[in-house]
Amino acid sequence: MLAGEVEMDTKELKEKLAVALKAARDICDEAEKANRDFSDEERQKVAGYLKEASDLKAQIKKAEGDEALRAQILELGEGIEVAQKGSQTLQAVVAGKGATIGEQFINAPEFKDWLGRFPNGRIPDSAKGLMSPPVAFKTLLTGSSDTSAGAFVQTDYTGIYEPLGRRPLVLRDLISRRTTTSDTVEFVRQTAKVSQAAPTAESNVTDYAGGTAEVSGEKPEGAMSFEKVQETVKTIAVWIPATKRALSDASQLRGLIDQELRDDLEEDLEDEIVGGDGSGEHFTGILNTSGVLTQAWDTDIFTTTRKALTAVRVTGRAKPTAWLIHPNDNEAIDLLKDGLNRYYYGGPFASGQQNLWGLPRVECEAVDEGEAILGDFRKAVIWDREQASISVSDSHSDFFIRNMIAILAEMRAAFGLIRPSAFCKVELTSGS
To answer: Which among 60, 120, 248, 321 is placed 20 to 30 Å from 228, CA to CA?
Structure first.
């Protein structure tokens, strides 16, 4: 390409660049005058103009760089006769008119020698199964270079988003769920039951005086006691800052943030139900509720869990519904073998619900490894005051003047055990 042609092309590219930038600036000015954000259509147009300007700028830079290189080569070679190499000269290279791959192939010595084996350098029509020798090219087209084949490779944006993942939540499916419109829930828990019943003989006297052979026939009086229990509604919350531009430019981001915040609330709620210590704004979880039974490690895991089952049935007077167990402990149970090296629970080919002494084993990461909870989970209640909700505000700190917003997720709920003795904390190892 001649210098004049390069100058003409560069001038034309610069004119196109100016037009694209002016169009983008006009849209910005219009939005600023109206004191508003871009509309979706305007945002798409501005993005298009900016991309066009970026492409034109790259073309201008490339054209000016090529011309500088050509001028430098010609200046260094002034007065020197350039020897030909094959069918290509240095002047041709400088001018950007190098031989094509096809020309390099047919002019290669390897191909000419091979073709010279045929009369007059012509391959007869009757020739079959011919194969020319390989020809090495000085110029290699690669997909990794932006100046070679890679310039034509377009990124395939799939739109796929893969989160880090969260643990499965199981407790809401096990426990009782109710709602409340108050900040405090109250229920009555029985602390002593009637246990005075006894066989009673028929009275044989009108006025019992305690004499020999006298039978009063008086029935025993029963007694029971209760306590009033109050559980206050607690708030679980989390928020995240974001810019208005980020949410506007990436429409799916808002939905991802909302879901992530809700999932975090539910995970914390499950942690509180299991192990909340009752201090401050924490729930009093199952493991820290007074009256919950405890089964210490005894001999092996089967002996220990069977005794826990008996404790809940006899002492707690409850019929347990499930085991709550950490995934690592559940794996240890699945891998247990008898004296003949056979899996107790069917091994890798077992199907259906995983059970222990006839009750389902429910994996829950809120339970500490080395412990399990056996219980009648119908006797655990969560009262929803406000289910998980999302709110947005720019009133936090200096967010208003920085075009930032706070996205807040929160829920309000209360939790309590109607009958603590219906639950048992079970030690699954000798050291727990």
So the answer is: 321
For 129, the domain range is 3-75+87-150
Query: What are the φ and ψ backbone dihedral angles of 62, each rounded to 5 degrees?
Result: -70, -45
The helix/strand/coil state of 290 is: coil
What kind and span of H or E run contains 386? strand 380-393
The whole-chain average pLDDT of the chain stands at 82
Nearest CA to 206 among 215, 197, 219? 215
β-pair type (359-363, 322-325)? parallel
Q: Do 260 and 364 sit in the same domain of this protein?
A: yes
Model confidence pLDDT, tens digit, residues 175-207: 999 999 999 999 888 888 777 788 988 887 888
The encoded tokens of residue 343 equal 């899996």
Question: What tokens were used for 19?
Answer: 């037009």
Q: Are 385 and 181 in contact (CB under 8 A)?
A: yes
Q: Would you say residue 19 lies in a domain?
A: yes
- The three-class DSSP label of residue 242 is strand
Q: How many CA atoms lie within 13 A of 176 on its CB side?
A: 14
Flag whether 222 is in a domain: no
CB 405 within 8 A of CB 392: yes
pLDDT at 98 (0 to 100): 52
Q: Which of 143-147, 221-225, 394-398 has the highest mean pLDDT?
A: 394-398
Residue 139, in any domain of the structure: yes
**Assigned token pair, 112:** 């000419």
- Furthest-apart CA pair in the chain: how many Å? 150
pTM: 0.62
Other C-beta atoms closer than 10 Å to the C-beta of 275 total: 17
